Write the structure tokens for this entry.
Amino acid sequence: MIQAVLFDLDGTLADTALDLGGALNTLLARHNLPAKSMDEIRTQASHGAAGLLKLGAGITPDHPDYAQWRTEYLDEYDSRYAQDTALFDGVNELIAELDQRGIKWGIITNKPMRFTDKLVPKLGFAIPPAVVVSGDTCGESKPSVKPMFHACKQIQTEPQHTLYVGDAERDIQAGRNAGMKTVLAEWGYIAPEDQTETWQPDYRIASPLDLLKIL
């Protein structure tokens, strides 16, 4: 008996790649580096600033200038976080149907609260989420189970009665380790080299409305 469905945000509910990538390419231009294509950006968009800075500039978290690059990138993203971002087709229809069935829904994302608090209200969800857990809400982010348990506590549901939907390996790991049923969003930001068959989600869906076949 599924009582709640929780979702990742970037690449699962919302197509944020245009704004994430636009911020990256503006930063790269400032540093006289070549722009990255949207196809390249989409494969790394789920990995946040770390993945995008590695893609664009070869800067990884162990690089001495990483903190400076990350600050610059996040400031640039902050100036355009909702410019081109939109919900994926079918998301609002899905959420409306969940509400009709009395199933709660919410968001667990690794995106910092700095952005989720502003972005989520602008996305135009048919029904507001019952809970939003950001990457820095609990002090740990996915694949930690802390955000998963925190969300369940907030909406008073048990993990075993919860589905978690995401497009990254850490989403599946976090959901499974928390005792939830996991669903891979195949329309998301999945790289060609990602071996999704090794992630072992309970279900795989090709579009948001396919979730209704599982419930």
In short: The longest helix spans residues 17-30. The CA atoms of residues 15 and 86 lie 6 Å apart. Residues 17-78 form one domain.
